[in-house]
Design goal:
Largest sheet: 9 strands, mixed
Helix content: 25-40%
Strand content: 15-25%
CATH class of the largest domain: Alpha Beta
CATH superfamily of the largest domain: Histidine kinase-like ATPase, C-terminal domain
Structural class: alpha+beta
CATH architecture of the largest domain: 2-Layer Sandwich
CATH topology of the largest domain: Heat Shock Protein 90
Radius of gyration: 28 Å
Oligomer: single chain
Number of domains: 4
Distance between the termini: 59 Å
Length: 646
């Protein structure tokens, strides 16, 4: 028997595994919720809340309550119709049990129950049940209260009546399975951002979030959201720290080809384009047909008005699509009955019919606005002309930046200590604060795959600078040249082309003090505004140098937190202990810097991710903008935390 025949004989029907019920979710959880880390943990909450939002979209729910309980379990309670509890004809068990234990079961698949529904992957609450150590569901309907409990997706008893009730709705409490998730501790700020976002996207719904884990002073955090004006309130919130060029946002609401469309847009005095798009409450980070329709409708309508006004002829400047979006904050929200998602993270809308619908709505309503508001229209056109002139200056500056990239290492920045490895996936670059720390890093690194680029002082605050000023900055030119990336693709003249990226780990390494934190923020602002693709692809990291060295005799402990320092003090004893507080990277010799901050086996790298693009946009505009009071309030509120979660 040949080897091939032997292999075929060994591979038979007995090798085919059939996973029953929700077992598949527990075996491959990342396929259903993205990952089993921080993001996947919070996705569980979103799936349950999405059910309540669907009830609201259908017109049956007006209040949603979300609670992080003391034991890190989650409760979601709504006043909708309540999940049906009667017997399911085909399954011969309660409809509630079917919904909670069968994948792809529920009212979302019956268009008579829900015209549109949220939930990115369509796995719903049954997936949450499968990944929960314990779940209890109470349904209030028909004047009664019904209940069923589950453990890891399996019901502990049939649905039973446990009392009477004069309300309707569903209450779900679940505790994530610690055997599945790497962390089971929920972050209040992350859930807060999402609940705020949902309140703006679904005007008229009461959403309350409460954290029942007491703070140090014994108080609890809670927030109530209610938006009467929807996206108009949302854009006011996002642009709170920017100077608006118009008294009110342009608001578009209507239906085209059966697709509800809601858009709010506002021009401000910044130089960045901030467009956030949503489909059925899902943040489509990669855009899609609704974003393409918005851009084409906006460009065509504004261009026609600018030509008609004669302002373009006087300016004698060429206008591009990018110019119409500089300094624009916009939110696009569409509701699609059968959304088709594509792209790397399944957050790019592919429905072709949506493009024409959005284009048509924007063109008609924006044309009416411009005719009815001539002063605001003139302000917009003047902003566009200014953007066009700045773009031409930026293009020349950018060409100077990219000219060095076509060369080999001879065109790299002089201070760059490059690595030997040629495979970008194996390489990492450290942007290091100052020459002193840069010198230690160069001596302590593994030169095979670690490159070092010292930064001279603080880089330009790009939040307050026109694009050509950024490209003229020596430090920013060095960053572009060192990374090897180019700007501009066939689809987007400002997009980053990552094909020639020379390192797949871009690490910001600064002192553990206020100045270091400021440089971190400047660098992250630059990456977020000019190189978001680096963050989206998971290439950007923050190094975490230790705060203390606790030493006694031949025993020494590096400590990253105050708690670790206290534990180290206990471990070595109080007498004869030397505690060194590191104020800067330059205080470490090369061996110490390698051991604590650069050695992959020991270092603590924090990957920079964007959980909520709209929230991150607002934070950066507030931290790096001109308005001081909001920045002071934010810093005071977050000063006890050692890091900023984006």
């Amino acid at each position: 028997m040949s080897e091939e025949q032997k292999n075929q004989a060994e591979y038979s029907a007995s090798n085919i595994t059939v996973l029953e019920g929700l077992e598949a979710v527990r075996v491959r959880p990342a396929m259903y919720i993205g990952d089993v880390n921080f993001r996947g943990l919070h996705h569980l909450v979103y799936e349950v809340v999405d059910n309540s939002i669907d009830e609201a979209l259908a017109g049956y729910c007006s209040k949603i309550y979300v609670s992080i309980n003391e034991d890190n379990s989650i409760t979601v309670d709504d006043n909708g119709r309540g999940i049906p509890v009667d017997m399911h004809e085909k399954e011969h068990r309660s409809a509630l049990e079917v919904v909670m234990t069968v994948l792809h079961a529920g009212g979302k698949f019956d268009k008579g129950s829900y015209k549109v529904s949220g939930g990115l992957h369509g796995v719903g609450v049954s997936c949450v049940n499968a990944l929960s150590e314990h779940m209890i569901v109470n349904v209030f309907r028909n004047g009664k209260t019904y209940q069923q409990e589950y453990s890891k997706g399996k019901p502990l008893y049939p649905v039973k009546e446990v009392g009477e009730s004069d309300r309707t709705g569903t209450r779900i409490t679940f505790h994530p399975d610690a055997g599945i998730f790497t962390t089971t501790e929920y972050d209040y700020a992350t859930l807060l951002d999402r609940m705020r976002e949902l309140a703006y996207l679904n005007k008229g719904i009461d959403i309350t979030i409460e954290d029942k884990r007491p703070l140090a002073d014994g108080t609890f955090q809670s927030k109530h959201f209610f938006s009467e004006n929807g996206l108009r309130d949302f854009i006011k919130y996002l642009d709170e720290n920017r100077e608006q060029l118009m008294p009110d946002a342009i608001y578009i609401e209507g239906e085209r080809n059966g697709i509800p469309i809601e858009i709010a847009m506002q021009y401000n005095n910044t130089y960045n384009e901030n467009i956030h798009s949503y489909v059925n409450n899902i943040n489509t980070h990669e855009g899609g047909t609704h974003l393409a329709g918005f851009r084409s409708g906006l460009t065509r309508t504004l261009k026609a008005y600018a030509d008609k006004s004669g302002l373009l002829a006087k300016a004698k400047v060429d206008i591009s699509g990018d110019d119409f979006r500089e300094g624009l904050t916009a939110i696009i929200s569409v509701k699609v009955s059968e959304p088709q998602f594509e792209g790397q993270t399944k957050t790019k809308l592919g429905n072709n019919e949506v493009r024409g619908a959005v284009d048509s709505a924007v063109s008609e309503m924006l044309e009416n606005y411009l005719e009815e508001h001539p002063n605001e229209a003139r302000t917009i056109v003047e902003k566009v002309i200014l953007a066009a002139r700045a773009r031409q200056a930026a293009r020349k500056a950018r060409e100077m930046v990219q000219r060095g990239n076509v060369f080999t290492s001879a065109g790299l920045p002089g201070k760059l200590a490059d690595c030997q490895e040629g495979d970008p996936s194996m390489c990492e670059i450290y942007f290091v604060e100052g020459d002193s720390a840069g010198g230690s890093a160069k001596q302590g690194r593994d030169r095979r795959y670690q490159a070092i680029l010292p930064l001279r002082g603080k880089i330009l605050n790009v939040e307050k600078a026109m694009r050509h000023r950024a490209f003229e900055s020596e430090e920013i030119k060095n960053i572009y040249t060192a990374l090897g990336v180019t700007i501009g693709t066939a689809e987007d003249s400002q997009a980053l082309n990552l094909e020639k990226l020379r390192y797949h780990k871009v690490i910001i390494m600064t002192d553990a003090d206020v100045d270091g934190a400021h440089i971190d923020t400047l660098m992250l602002t630059f990456f977020f505004r000019y190189m978001p693709e680096l963050i989206e692809n998971g290439y950007v990291y923050l190094a975490t140098p230790p705060l203390y060295l606790v030493k006694k005799g031949n025993k020494s402990f590096y400590c990253w937190t105050e708690e670790e320092r206290e534990q180290a003090m206990v471990a070595v004893g109080d007498k004869g202990v030397h505690v060194q507080r590191y104020k800067g990277l330059g205080e470490m010799n090369p061996e110490q810097l390698w051991e604590t901050t650069m050695d992959p086996d020991n270092r603590q790298l924090r990957q920079v991710t964007i959980e909520n693009a709209a929230s991150a946009d607002r934070v950066f505009s507030m931290l790096m903008g001109d308005d001081v009071p909001p920045r002071r309030e934010f810093i005071e509120s977050n000063a006890t935390y050692a890091q900023l979660d984006l």
